[in-house]
Amino acid sequence: MTTIELHPEFLTAKGKRQFAVIPYEEFVALQEWIEDAKDLTALRIAREENKDEPSFTIEEVKKELGID
Q1: Is the CB of residue 12 less than 8 Å from the CB of residue 18?
Q2: Residue spans per domain, the chain
């Protein structure tokens, strides 16, 4: 996964940071990064849960289905 460089602007109240505002493009990139992280976690869990199940290469599947 790639890293995202964020450029936040901080809004303060009574001298304390209360909110961070980032450019929209960075927000979208951050959302995509989070989704990718979720997908990767789900993949790792699925692999672990199915580690004892048989697996097949794409060539074996094509042969079984009669696809060239």
Answers
A1: yes
A2: 24-65
